[in-house]
Amino acid sequence: MNAYGERLAAVVAQRGRLCVGVDPHLSILQQWGLPLDASGLERCAMTLVEAVADQVAVLKPQSAFFEVFGSAGIAVLEKVLGAIREAGALSLLDVKRGDIGSTMAAYAQAYLGEGPLAADAITISPYLGFGSLQPAIDLAVANGRGVYVLVRTSNPEGHEVQTARHHDLTVAQQVLEAGAAINRDHARIEDGVPGPVGAVVGLTHQALDIDLSRFAGSLLVPGLGAQGGTPEHVATLFGDQTPLTLPSTSRDIAEAGPDPAAIRRRTAEVAAALR
Amino acid sequence: MNAYGERLAAVVAQRGRLCVGVDPHLSILQQWGLPLDASGLERCAMTLVEAVADQVAVLKPQSAFFEVFGSAGIAVLEKVLGAIREAGALSLLDVKRGDIGSTMAAYAQAYLGEGPLAADAITISPYLGFGSLQPAIDLAVANGRGVYVLVRTSNPEGHEVQTARHHDLTVAQQVLEAGAAINRDHARIEDGVPGPVGAVVGLTHQALDIDLSRFAGSLLVPGLGAQGGTPEHVATLFGDQTPLTLPSTSRDIAEAGPDPAAIRRRTAEVAAALR
Predict the structure, then answer these.
(1) From the candidates A7, A60, A96, A97, which is the catalytic residue?
(2) Residues 6+ apart with CB under 8 A from A82
(3) Which of A117, A130, A163 is closest, CB to CB, to B67?
(4) Strands A245-249 and A217-222, how do they pair?
(5) Please, which residues 208-237 of chain B have a Cβ atom closer than 8 Å to chain A?
(6) Which of B128, B40, B123 shows the shortest CA–CA distance to B76?
(7) 8 Å CB contact of B157 and A130
(8) Distance from the CA of A241 to the CA of which of A35, A114, A155, B195 falls in 20 to 30 A?
(9) What's the gap in Å between the CA of B75 and the closest CA on chain A?
(10) What is the structure's pLDDT at B8?
């Protein structure tokens, strides 16, 4: 399989850079008049995916909303990942896993291997140190997949950990530097191709307190829409400094449903505003 | 349901404080001559649980090894959690989840609610700030359950984040102080009853670089056995300073299998050495 960065650049060139979150929250199931069980979950998630997966570059299912229903929910997640693949979009599974050694390797195998939950990319969490994530990065590189490491999140409490300092760097910057060291060997910035290590950076900050200039990875930027982020703020915060910035929205899209045509229309509007 | 601290103190008083990890790693399945699929996973995990769940206080299934097999693996995890409950042990599900807002609330509902993956306690990760974990803490308190927050892990890379400083405190100490503020309202230290917020602290450190004196929560201490930790080192590091310290081992126990009698014998030996 081609490198993740190549695949991402290709699909974004065709479809634009909007990432649509697949967040089948119970409140959305309720709003759509669906039963609050795995069958309602499936209807909601598959409606979203079938509506937009041929229209946007990246879909981001949020694992938590599937885990709520145990194995029945995870079976729905398997279907969702398959449907995203068939429609030619990339799946960025939001699982925020982070562990060490053979456990981290098992998470990598679960989501970046060839099993039923294989995704094109996943989010991972570096509380145990960036080095602990190496098994996921290695498998991602080997299998043409990507990882998005939590760096600087959108919530107000994030700074307690993310702006703490180790030697001269904040935790967030240190994670970026470690990711940059890997991306350097894979990215072709001049062609708009990012490396396999992405970063999660929220859209709610007034200004960035991190330096992305050497990162050479794509950015997942949650917070567009319901959380208050605008396309203009995406441009203000990120400009042209990274090869690929993927603003992500979910609630706004889901609330346009359950009519697939309305979901597609809303998605097209948000995508157009991002140009 | 009684508070988690009460339930933990009661079962530890009866059975001792050893926590046995249920880590059905592929290498263990291979060693036991089991198929490398969900049926082998089930045989391995259920053999471990049935062998020791009436003998130890706490069993800690590692979610990653179940997630590898997708929904079929998660169905096995549901059975494992049910079998632990029926045998009168507490389940401490190692999932290291950490997210924000409605997503964190969904993780809490998945594991600390009443669904098929309900556990007595879970591990959680504070990269997004301790405050982001509040939905899990609230539901744990409401439902008589516990959470174990990653604080100071056993792996060599952990210090990059965990000893970074925010104002005058390390990230690890800051997490402990935030947990202590919650435990204060729930713990009855004089009776050996900890609060609902536990901490994960590895056993591999030569000396502790955190102050646990005011924490008032139980400690999950991985690293006994295969990772090199000894019962003597548990005593050296933790002394009597916390109401309940739960040293955890997994590989040593699993490698005694697949004979249930041998698993029980090895478990009894490790438990006896901890007294």
Answers:
(1) A96
(2) none
(3) A117
(4) parallel
(5) none
(6) B40
(7) yes
(8) A155
(9) 5
(10) 97
Which positions of chain A have pLDDT values less than 50? none
Active-site residue (options: B96, B152, B205, B266): B96
Three-state SS for A1-26 is CCCHHHHHHHHHHHHCCCEEEECCCH
Is the CB of A170 less than 8 angstroms away from the CB of B163? Answer: no
According to the model, what pLDDT value does residue B242 have? 67
- Whether A96 sits among the annotated catalytic residues: the reply is yes
What is the SS3 assignment for B16? coil
The residue assigned the tokens 């290590």 is A197
DSSP B188: B
Mean pLDDT, residues B146-173: 94
Residue with tokens 């960036």: A130
Q: B164, A164: Cβ pair inside 8 Å?
A: yes
Q: Which two tokens stand for residue B152?
A: 């100071």
Q: Tell the burial category of B167 from Cβ atoms under 10 Å away from its Cβ (0-12, 13-18, 19+).
A: exposed
Q: Does B33 touch chain A (CB under 8 A)?
A: no
- Mean pLDDT score across all residues of chain B: 95
B158 confidence band (pLDDT: 50, 70, 90): very high
Q: How far is CA A204 from CA A18, A153, A154, A228, in A?
A: 17, 8, 5, 7
CA angle A221, A225, A226 (to 5 degrees): 110
Percent of chain B clearing pLDDT 70 (strictly above): 99
Q: Residue range B113-122: average pLDDT?
A: 98
Q: State how beta strands A169-170 and A165-166 pair.
A: antiparallel
Q: A158: distance to nearest CA of chain B, Å?
A: 4
DSSP chain A: ---HHHHHHHHHHHH-S-EEEE---HHHHHHTT--SSHHHHHHHHHHHHHHHTTT-SEEEEBHHHHHTTHHHHHHHHHHHHHHHHHTTPEEEEEEEE---HHHHHHHHHHHHSSSTT--SEEEE--TT-GGGGHHHHHHHHHHT-EEEEEEE-SSTTTHHHHT-EETTEEHHHHHHHHHHHHHTTT-BGGGTB-EEEEEEE-S--SS--S--TTT-EEEEEE-BSTTSB-HHHHHHHHTTSSS-EEEEE-HHHHTT-SSHHHHHHHHHHHHHHH-
Mutant choice from A25, A29, A60, A67 vs B, greatest count of B C-beta within 10 A: A67
A105 to chain B: closest CA residue: B64
* Interchain contact A39–B (C-beta under 8 A): no
The pLDDT score that the predictor gives to residue A241 is 62
Instruction: Say yes or no to pLDDT of B157 above 90.
Output: yes
